[in-house]
Amino acid sequence: MAATPARSAGASELYFEQSTIVRTDGTVRGEGVLSRVWYAGKRMRLEAGDAPGGPALLLRLDLAKAWRLDPERKVATEMDVARLRARSQMDASLAGDLMGGSDEGGVRTSALKIPKTIAGHACRGFRITGPSVVLDLYVAEDLPVGIDAFTDFVEWSGASQSMGGILDEVRKLPGFPLQTRSRVTVLDRVHETVSTITKVQVGRQPRSLFEVPAGFRIEAEAPEPDQE
Fold first, then answer.
1. DSSP secondary structure letter of residue 2
2. CA–CA separation, 138 and 112 (whole Å)
3. Residue 210, CB half-sphere, CA atoms under 13 Å: how many?
4. Model-level pTM?
5. Which of 13, 87, 175, 228 could join 139 via S-S bond, C-beta 3.0 to 4.6 A?
6. Contacts of residue 147, Cβ cutoff 8 Å, sequence gap at least 6
7. Within a domain: residue 147?
8. What is the CATH number of the domain that holds 120?
9. Residue 57 structural domain
C-alpha cells in the first residue's frame, strides 16, 4: 500500500467547490447551493453562488476576526466574534441535543465497505452513528490537509463543546472529507443534508483573498435589537 503523502505546513492550502442539497423525507428542498472555499491554514474565504466575485465571508482564525464583504457597495462588515460564537454555541447545542452528540457513550464509528472516487480522489467511507443521527463521511488521504481543516473552525466558533461525542469521532478520521451526508430524525421526519466537493485544487492561495480589499469601507456589525 502506498504511503500517505506528508501534510507539511507549507502545502496545506487548497481551493474547492462544493454542492449541498437538503432533503426532507426523501424530497429535495430547493435547488441546492454551490459554494467556493479557499483554505490556507488559519485563513478561510467562503463564497456562495455560481459566479465568483460575489459576496464573501472572510474568516481569520489567526486574528479572531471575521468580515462579510459586499462588493456592490464596497463595504466590509466586521462581525462581532463574541456574538458569532454565542450563536454557534446555541445552534450547536440544539443540534447536539437533537443528534445525541453530547452523549459520548451513544456515538460509534464504523467503516463503510464500498469506497468512492470523488473529484478525482479515492475516498474511504466512515459512518458515525448517534441516537438520532447518521453521519457518513468519505475522506481522501492523498490531500495535504486533514480533518483539522474542519475542526479548526469548529473550535474557533465555540461550537465544539456542544457537539460532544460526534466531533470526537470526526477528529479521528484519517483524511479530508470530500463528501458528508447527515441524516437526522426529528419528530418522525428524516432531514438529510449531502455536501459533495466537485472540484479541488491544491496549492498556495493568494494572500489578497483573505484581506479586506483596498477601497472597501469597514463597518461594525449592527447591534442586536435588545443591545441598542
1. P
2. 9
3. 20
4. 0.80
5. 175
6. 139, 170, 171, 173, 174, 175, 176, 177
7. yes
8. 2.50.20.10
9. 9-227
Q: CB of 213 within 8 A of CB of 59?
A: no
Number of domains in the chain: 1
Return the residue matching grid coordinates 449541498.
Answer: 20
The residue behind cell 467556493 is: 36
Is 219 within a domain?
Answer: yes
As a whole number of angstroms, the distance between CA 113 and CA 188 comes to: 28
pLDDT per residue as tens, the chain (228 positions): 333 333 434 448 899 999 999 999 888 887 788 999 999 988 999 998 777 778 999 999 889 899 999 999 999 999 887 777 666 554 544 455 554 444 455 789 999 999 999 999 999 999 998 877 889 999 999 998 888 877 776 666 655 555 667 888 888 999 999 999 988 888 788 889 999 999 999 999 999 999 999 999 999 988 766 554
The identity of residue 193, as a single letter, is T
Q: Domain for residue 49, yes or no?
A: yes
